[in-house]
Amino acid sequence: MFADNARVFIKSGKGGDGHVSFRRELFVAAGGPDGGDGGRGGDIIFQVEKGLNTLGDFRHTRKYVAEPGDNGGKKNCHGKDGKDLIIRVPEGTIIKDELSGKVIADMSNNNLREVILKGGRGGKGNMNFATPTMQVPKFAQPGKDAQELWVILELKVIADVGLVGFPNVGKSTLLSRVTNARPKIANYHFTTLNPNLGVVDLDGFGFVIADIPGLIEGASQGTGLGHEFLKHIERTKVLIHMVDVASTEGRDPITDINTINGELEAYNPDLMKRPQVIAANKIDAIFEGDENPVDKLKAEFEPKGIKVFPISAVSGKGLNELLYYVKELLDGLDNTPIIFEKEFFPKDLLDNRNEPFSVEKVDETTYYVGGPRIEKMLGYTNLDDEKGFNFFQKFLKEKGIIDKLKELGIQEGDTVKVGTELEFDYYE
């Protein structure tokens, strides 16, 4: 089953504890310390699997935990390292922190393998703490804690060209005719339930085209299937609007294009900066004698720089002209792949849990909370989102910051300033 979204829990392995022991040998009255170090915990690693094209496996398994390191042993025995856990995903998968919504990694282009969570470091055994003044250390270092996160996986297909349009305008027919794709085709709405990809080969020049299903009015708000599939347009560099120019179902092609452009802009305004071309399909169904709807399309959109090509996806008429024009557009664009930049660094956030913070009373009704750890939390948390704000409040409670505010005499309705960005009224 095709799936392009998943929510999973990931946790690296805890480091093994260092061991406390002493040599016990015949004729050795007082052997020195010989407690070994703990093993390193396993990492959580995401890796691209080239043959994979869906996140469907994550619907059955939602928890991924790497092996912990073994504890150290006597006779200087080092604990065994925990095995790394490799999680295989399709190319084009975005890994996001669930609470902040920020990108941890984009598994595409050359980034085919990335360590997302590091395993805990093994603790040192007591043999490491012997000194001339402390020859019998009776303590060892515990292993470092594991790291854990809830993450969202989003698959954004990798294609040069996005084929968009209302249901039943002939996108799947076009894709099957000009590429090696074999999508299922039937004459009813929402036939295509997942993005179909195909490779167009023009005299040795190839580009990937994706049929993006489910776009209707309200798609950017989740109506129909649009919200599920709009994400797949984000990597494309050129958009082909496909319309039923003959209005065989009573739809107005000009209105359809303007509606879809409105949905694209509402979802991501950057999409409107990409070159567009219009494929005016079903020209073989236009009745002679009527005003030519292709001319109306050209009059509306070509002055805006959007070229219109009359085609028939069924017969193949006009397809070469359309495809070679798309090739020209791609030739004139930067061929650097569209990559989603890293915004969230789990190591920085999770490895600095004990950084200092300060809680101060500014005046009778105002309190200040600050420090490096607080500033990092603000940077990683989406405070405009209710879930993100609740997460931040939980952090304040867990770190004892709320208790400290109470000790300083905070009352309901007083103002709390957090770092340089956040200010809120305090209520129990």
TrEMBL record:
Q: Where does GTP bind?
A: 165-172, 190-194, 211-214, 281-284, 312-314
Picking any one GO molecular function of the record gives: magnesium ion binding
Describe the location of the Obg domain by residue ranges: 1-158
Q: Which cofactor does it need?
A: Mg(2+)
What's the top EC group for this one?
A: hydrolase
Mention any one GO cellular component term assigned to this protein in its UniProt record.
cytoplasm
Q: Record-annotated residues binding Mg(2+)? A: 172, 192
InterPro entries with a match to the protein in the record:
G_OBG (IPR031167), GTP-bd (IPR006073), GTP-bd_Obg/CgtA (IPR014100), GTP-bd_prot_GTP1/OBG_C_sf (IPR036346), GTP1-OBG_CS (IPR006074), GTP1_OBG_dom (IPR006169), GTP1_OBG_dom_sf (IPR036726), OBG_GTPase (IPR045086)
Its localization reads: Cytoplasm
Limits of the OCT domain: 349-428
Under Enzyme Commission nomenclature, its number is: 3.6.5.-
Which Pfam families does the UniProt entry name for this protein?
A: DUF1967 (PF09269), GTP1_OBG (PF01018), MMR_HSR1 (PF01926)
Which BP terms does GO give this entry? ribosome biogenesis
Q: Where does the OBG-type G domain start and stop, copy by copy?
A: 159-331
- Asked if the record carries the keyword Hydrolase, the reply is yes
Keywords attached to this Swiss-Prot or TrEMBL record, sorted alphabetically, are: Cytoplasm, GTP-binding, Hydrolase, Magnesium, Metal-binding, Nucleotide-binding
Q: Which HAMAP family match?
A: GTPase_Obg (MF_01454)
Q: How does it assemble?
A: Monomer.
**What is the similarity comment for this entry?**
Belongs to the TRAFAC class OBG-HflX-like GTPase superfamily. OBG GTPase family.
**Listed PANTHER family:** DEVELOPMENTALLY REGULATED GTP-BINDING PROTEIN-RELATED, MITOCHONDRIAL RIBOSOME-ASSOCIATED GTPASE 2
> Function of this protein?
An essential GTPase which binds GTP, GDP and possibly (p)ppGpp with moderate affinity, with high nucleotide exchange rates and a fairly low GTP hydrolysis rate. Plays a role in control of the cell cycle, stress response, ribosome biogenesis and in those bacteria that undergo differentiation, in morphogenesis control.
Task: Spell out the protein name for this chain.
Answer: GTPase Obg
Q: Which organism is it from?
A: [Clostridium] fimetarium
